[in-house]
Design brief:
Layout: H1 30-48, E1 61-66, H2 72-83, E2 87-91, H3 105-112, E3 118-123, H4 128-135, E4 140-145, H5 151-165, E5 172-176, H6 183-192, E6 199-203, H7 212-215, E7 221-224, E8 236-239, H8 250-256, E9 275-278, H9 298-316
Helix pairs in contact: 1-5, 1-9, 2-9, 3-4, 5-6, 5-9
Bound molecules: N-carbamoyl-L-aspartate.
Length: about 325
């Protein structure tokens, strides 16, 4: 898997975020991450106090353009915008749009910029979100581009880790499953590398190891195919689905798809306060009997993502008058 490079104009606004489009986890510096997570925490606290609707995006429109299946990412962005008092227009099946007629992503972006103040795009091709952002006159968020990146999932993941473990540094973090093709793993490891003193344990079938360029930023990483040899050391275990849609050879998928199936038995030696995460959807990699264990955090992880996406929309949306961009 090739890491896709793209240019990203920096904003002059020191109080805001350092980027205009969120395409790659590398767009985020530590200050950005802290701003996003602290606003997410504020929304979370206010929600716990009974708030259901805010006004921070009143008058703004989010466009969600999804060319690949999604439940959580699309719904949590849409729910986030509605909770912020904004509105949503949505293309659920990208195949029904004019790209089908041969329109470039860049042209689609230029046009959608007149209809929305911020856009979330998901597309099966690595690099597609960056191409889209090139033509856009409004901020663009990558909701997953092929096997490449999924930075907003990783912000939500960091939020869960901090809530569960109380910190984002000095942790031993296991990442298990399809490390080759999992965009959530790629983005997560990039974001975590902003925090010091973490140790990483990369657990995968030998044919699904993390690509070399993703490994490069990790100071201390151990690779293994044997979960039992490391399970008792982990503070966090992040499980990924074997990404069937990225396999050209379905027989190869069949060979590796059940390399790891977590059960209460296989987690026996895990720390009681280990945080067991998964971006979902799961297929076979976590048995439903695991859901009742104290370590299971994946449903909360999905639920809290809405606060992180609210924070992102508030901080990123176009605030200039609509005509200024046209
Ligand atoms: C992930 C994705 O789309 O990359 N799902 C999600 O956004 N929650 C993980 C996956 O599909 O395996």
């Amino acid at each position: 898997m090739r890491r896709v490079k793209h240019k990203n104009k920096k904003s002059a606004d020191k109080k805001g975020l350092s980027f205009r489009h969120l395409i790659d986890a590398k767009d985020l510096n530590r200050d950005d991450v802290e701003k996003i997570l602290s606003l997410a925490a504020r929304y979370h606290f206010e929600a716990e106090d009974g708030e259901r609707r805010w006004k921070d995006a009143k008058g703004h429109i989010l466009a969600t353009l999804f060319f690949e299946p999604s439940t959580r990412t699309r719904f949590s962005f849409e729910s986030a915008m509605l909770r912020l008092g904004g509105e949503v227009i949505s293309l659920e099946q990208g195949s029904s749009s004019s790209t089908r007629k041969g329109e470039t992503l860049s042209d689609t972006a230029r046009v959608v910029s007149a209809y929305a103040d911020i856009v979330v795009i998901r597309h099966p091709e690595a690099g597609s979100a960056a191409k889209f952002a090139k033509g856009a006159l409004v901020p663009v968020i990558n909701g997953g581009d092929g096997a490449n990146q999924h930075p907003t999932q990783s912000l939500a993941d960091l939020y869960t880790i901090r809530l569960a473990q109380g910190r984002l540094e000095n942790l031993t973090i296991g990442v298990l499953g399809d490390l080759k093709n999992s965009r959530t793993a790629h983005s997560l490891l990039t974001l975590l590398s902003l925090y010091p003193k973490n140790k990483y344990v990369l657990i995968s079938h030998p044919s699904l190891q993390l690509p070399r360029e993703d490994k490069a930023g990790l100071a201390a990483a151990v690779e293994t195919a044997d979960l039992q040899s490391v399970i008792d050391k982990l503070d966090v275990l992040y499980v990924t689905r074997v990404q069937e849609e990225r396999f050209a050879d379905k027989a190869e998928y069949a060979r590796v798809k059940n390399s790891f199936i977590l059960t209460p038995e296989s987690l026996k030696k895990a720390k009681k306060n280990m945080t067991l995460m998964h971006a979902l959807p799961r297929v076979n990699e976590i048995h439903p009997d695991v859901d009742k264990l104290p370590q299971a955090a994946y449903f909360e992880q999905a639920g809290r993502a809405v606060f992180v996406r609210m924070a992102l929309l508030t901080l990123m949306k176009r605030d200039a008058p609509l005509v200024a961009a046209l």
